Fold this protein.
Amino acid sequence: ADIGINWKGAIYWPHKEYKVLDYKEISPILYEPRKVTAIITSYSKNEKIAKKFLDFLLTPSSQKILRKWGF
């Protein structure tokens, strides 16, 4: 495809198949915000550490990082 529409975080993903050449932000009045969740699955090898990371995601420092990467 010549163009894709995705969330802003996708421009930072390391892509082997292509390089992001340019992007434009779409005004938030044109779409409904999407809810993004973080989960611990049954594949977790260390549920205790995963839970700590999940709790970390709610901290101000984590929120700053998430905003930086488009979440």
Q: What stands out?
A: Residues 47-56 form the longest helix (10 residues). The chain has a mean pLDDT of 86.
